[in-house]
Amino acid sequence: MLGVFSAKGGVGKTTTVSNLGAALAQKKRGKVLIMETNMTASNLGLYLGVVDPPVVVQDLVYGRVRPEEAILKTPYGLHLLPGSVAYTDEVTAVDFSPLTEALRRKYEVIILDTAPGFAPEVTAAMRVCDSILVCCQPQVPAIAGTLQTLRMAERLKVPVLCCVLTRVTGRRWEIPLPEIRRTLGWPALAEIPEDEAVPESITRGTPVVLWAPRSPAAVGYLKLAEQLLSHLRRRKARKGVKKVKRGSRR
Ligand SMILES: Nc1ncnc2c1ncn2[C@@H]1O[C@H](COP(=O)(O)OP(=O)(O)O)[C@@H](O)[C@H]1O
Ligand SMILES: [Mg+2]
């Protein structure tokens, strides 16, 4: 269970979730789910061209609907648990764990899209994650937000796999990479360049890794997906070793 977080909005969380999901699903068809956890401003579905799903994550979390009724299967092997785009001012305590525990049994990889800020739904999402990615942009407000998210992860004891620096243009007003590394105290940074293909792909409702796989942003996301896959393989291997050791002690 992987979550994509950032305290600041508009820094590329949903773009990252939809593209990593689509890239991983190319290798693991039907075994990757992306899930909405932003309960008041859900928009993950829109990035895959899903506008008004009949059953949504809110029905699962607050109601008695079964996950199979809400999960949509894309033609490219990625499964989606969307939220409702309707306006609601209802703020209710949320616990994702019963739902995510059920989904863990069905999927190899689940990626959570999250709300900005630190509302209870953000904490609830981080609590169910095995590890997280933090999205950031090379600008001061986004970096400040990233520091807050890193602190939150530390407090909840959730490992941070890497920071994803999105919309990098290399223009003179951007904070340079070495300075961002120093400020965050975080060595693992993935870079995704600013790329017109991204908004274009969102308008088409198709992740950019599928819409324009050779575009600079798609190449960045495909590379990050490869790194994630090898991380997952290493983790699986370590779990295997632990099981064998436990077995041999008996
Ligand atoms: N690499 C990129 N190049 C160009 N535009 C991007 C890129 N990544 C994201 N965007 C744009 O930035 C906006 C915010 O992205 P989004 O993924 O919705 O952020 P968040 O989920 O953090 O609010 C979107 O309109 C998207 O088109
Ligand atoms: Mg978003």
Short description:
The protein is of the alpha/beta class and 250 residues long. It has 10 helices and 8 strands. The chain has an 8-stranded mixed beta sheet, sandwiched between helices.
Can you describe this structure?
- There is one protein chain.
- The chain has an 8-stranded mixed sheet with strand order 3-4-2-5-1-6-7-8, with helices on both faces.
- The chain has a single domain, classed as P-loop containing nucleotide triphosphate hydrolases (Rossmann fold), CATH 3.40.50.300.
- It has 250 residues and is of the alpha/beta class.
- The protein has helices at 13-27, 57-62, 67-70, 97-104, 120-127, 140-156, 177-184, 197-204, 208-211, 216-249; strands at residues 2-5, 32-36, 72-73, 78-81, 109-113, 131-136, 160-168, 189-193.
- The chain is built from 10 helices and 8 strands.
- It is 45% helix and 16% strand.
- The chain binds adenosine-5'-diphosphate (ADP) and magnesium ion.
